């Protein structure tokens, strides 16, 4: 059974969703990638509580790596891209080309971009660390202003 909760963050409300296998999603309130059915609201579910704690620590500047079981659901290609995203170090950015290279599929830059945009686990699976080859910010499902704020939180310089 899927469970969810809604938390407050410095960048707005987030909905967290999990099941017994792991975290399924973490979405800002304006993201359109949320599923139609979230499950049962359960503010006491241990994994949702731990996710909130770790996100609070991240926003407070005392956590730069997450330690949570992840269970995002997508195609084999999407999950491969999402797994590669988790290897981008805190405080660094990659281009879409670097991400395509990381999954040994250098010609899949556009497909990588689409998979990146469908990442259901914001921040924890750090799709915000992917920027354009030129160093400019590109789209972000949570809004470019949130992407900029997340990069600033990680002391990452970027072009607007």
UniProtKB/TrEMBL annotation:
Entry annotated with the keyword Transmembrane: no
Per the UniProt entry, the signal peptide is none
Entry-linked Pfam families: DNA_binding_1 (PF01035), Methyltransf_1N (PF02870)
Ordered alphabetically, the record's keywords are: Cytoplasm, DNA damage, DNA repair, Methyltransferase, Transferase
Q: What is its EC number?
A: 2.1.1.63
Its UniProt entry gives the catalysed reaction(s) as: a 4-O-methyl-thymidine in DNA + L-cysteinyl-[protein] = a thymidine in DNA + S-methyl-L-cysteinyl-[protein]; a 6-O-methyl-2'-deoxyguanosine in DNA + L-cysteinyl-[protein] = S-methyl-L-cysteinyl-[protein] + a 2'-deoxyguanosine in DNA
Q: Which residues form the Methylated-DNA-[protein]-cysteine S-methyltransferase DNA binding domain?
A: 76-155
**Domain Methylguanine DNA methyltransferase ribonuclease-like: residue ranges:** 3-71
- Gene Ontology BP annotations: methylation
Source organism per UniProt: Vibrio ponticus
- What subcellular locations does the record give? Cytoplasm
Functional description taken from the UniProt entry = Involved in the cellular defense against the biological effects of O6-methylguanine (O6-MeG) and O4-methylthymine (O4-MeT) in DNA. Repairs the methylated nucleobase in DNA by stoichiometrically transferring the methyl group to a cysteine residue in the enzyme. This is a suicide reaction: the enzyme is irreversibly inactivated.
GO terms (molecular function) for this protein are:
methyltransferase activity
| The name this protein goes by in its record | Methylated-DNA--protein-cysteine methyltransferase
Q: Which family does it belong to?
A: Belongs to the MGMT family.
Q: Does the keyword Magnesium apply?
A: no
| Active-site residue list | 127 (nucleophile)
